[in-house]
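Known limitations

Structure tokens in this collection are predictions and should be treated as such. Users comparing against experimental data should check residue numbering before alignment. To illustrate the layout, the record for Cytochrome c-type biogenesis protein CcmE is reproduced below. The input appears on top and the generated tokens appear beneath it.
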Amino acid sequence: MKPRQKRLVLVAAGLALLALAAWLISSAFQKNLVFSVTPTEVLASADRARNLRMGGLVEKGSLRRDGDGVTVDFIITDLAQRVPVRYSGILPDLFKEGKGAVVQGKLGADGVFTATEVLAKHDENYMPPDAARALKEAAEAKDKK
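Generated tokens:
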């Protein structure tokens, strides 16, 4: 094999390895990618297998604790749609009814969002951008009625 052919084979092998590495990185990102959505978008989506991060308000009067004291049911709303959420674990100290929250998990076939993580807003001004937009649109729609 001539030196030129060896160089060509090495360049081709290098490009193939680079393409393989790019594909592996891309597939790892796709598996761990979490989309931020509102309750309206969750209910409109047919994809129930994907991990989602849903933001909105914890509906007043919806917080229920099971007998074990660890499992909690509540409703997240964007004032247009409501999604029941079930979470097993300790809630953050700032988690309250009527306040903003972000839950991460999957929507089950029964329509209940099973959360693996619950985050509460950290001050009076914070709200996830998508949730703030959805709440504003819902409030404008109510005003028009």
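For this record: DSSP finds three helices and seven strands in the chain. The longest strand covers residues 100-107. Please report discrepancies through the issue tracker.
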